[in-house]
Amino acid sequence: MSLHSWLGHKLASFLAKPRDRLSITTSRPGLLAATLRKGDVLLVEGTSRFAGAIRYITQSTWSHSALCVGDALADRFGSETMLVEADVNDGVRAVPVSRYAHVHTRICRPVGLHEEEIEGVIGYAIARLGQRYDLRNIFDLARYLITEPPVPERYRRRLLALGGGDPTRAICSSLIAAAFESVRYPILPDIEVNWEESAMGQRYARQILHIRDSRLFAPRDFDVSPYFRIIKPTLEHGFDPHLLTWAVPLPPITRDVERD
């Protein structure tokens, strides 16, 4: 192993360690797995030093993302719902949904894809199991843990690609973005507006979508994308506010009586 690789792994292990930062559990145990579908993107609020750097660069709660592949890996892991993600230490790997059952998460669901297209997205991610994380990004991101440079917000996204460039090494969001791009599903594409003229002489605008560099995608992009539906497990499984038990009951509702 080269000195660069050795330092990268040591730094990755240091950055991946969780810090004393509380995370809100957003659903009851088991509810997350019961809600996720194949092709869903799970966003995670991480508590590690690495997550802190991602939050600074993207100005977002979400620092990690994973792709739900359902039972597509049942021959290796049994019937448990599985996710594919890119980890700074282990590279692209499969983990059970239960790994994130007790942290702050959000489900982002693509809309309108056919079953074979969902399988294409999943197949793209599964085919890359075992690939290593782009450790060059680790050195670049580590700089923002030492100090937060006064980089204008509009330029921060470019920081994600400073160390990248090797297509066989993934970072969490770029892996999932590339998987959706493989079936031409939009996330946050660059949109070009062309004005054209119909046969009747009427002018109309036509939008042309351009695929962005997958290295520039961040977990928050799936959250703000107009093409992904936000799914909340509690609401999907029959939430009723009237069945909640409060520590302090509300006083009875009283109505003013009209007087003559």
Describe it for me?
With 260 residues, the chain is α+β, with helices and mostly antiparallel strands. The chain is 31% helix and 20% strand. The protein contains 10 helices and 10 strands. The strands form 3 sheets. Strands 4-3-2-1-5-10 form a 6-stranded antiparallel sheet. β8 and β9 form a beta hairpin. The longest helix has 14 residues. The radius of gyration is 22 Å and the shape is globular. It starts with a helix and ends in a 24-residue tail after the last helix. About 3% of the residues have low confidence.
Measured distance between first and last alpha carbons = 91 Å
Major β-sheet, in short?
A: 6 strands, antiparallel
Overall pLDDT level: 76
Strand residue percentage: 15-25%
Q: What is the number of beta strands?
A: 10
The helicity comes to 25-40%
What is the overall number of helices?
A: 10
Gross morphology is globular
Structural class: alpha+beta
Strand order in the largest sheet = 4-3-2-1-5-10
Radius of gyration based on Cα positions: 22 Å
Give the SSE string. HHEHEHEEEHEHHEHEEHEH
Main attributes?
260 residues, alpha+beta, six-stranded antiparallel beta sheet, 10 strands, 31% helix
Topology overview:
Blueprint (H helix, E strand, L loop, with lengths): L2 H14 L14 H5 L5 E4 L4 H10 L5 E7 L3 H4 L4 E6 L3 E6 L8 E6 L4 H12 L5 E2 L1 H12 L6 H4 L12 E2 L1 H10 L8 E8 L5 E8 L9 H5 L3 E4 L1 H4 L24
Parallel strand pairs: 6-7
Antiparallel strand pairs: 1-2, 1-5, 2-3, 3-4, 5-10, 8-9
Helix pairs in contact: 1-6, 3-6, 5-8
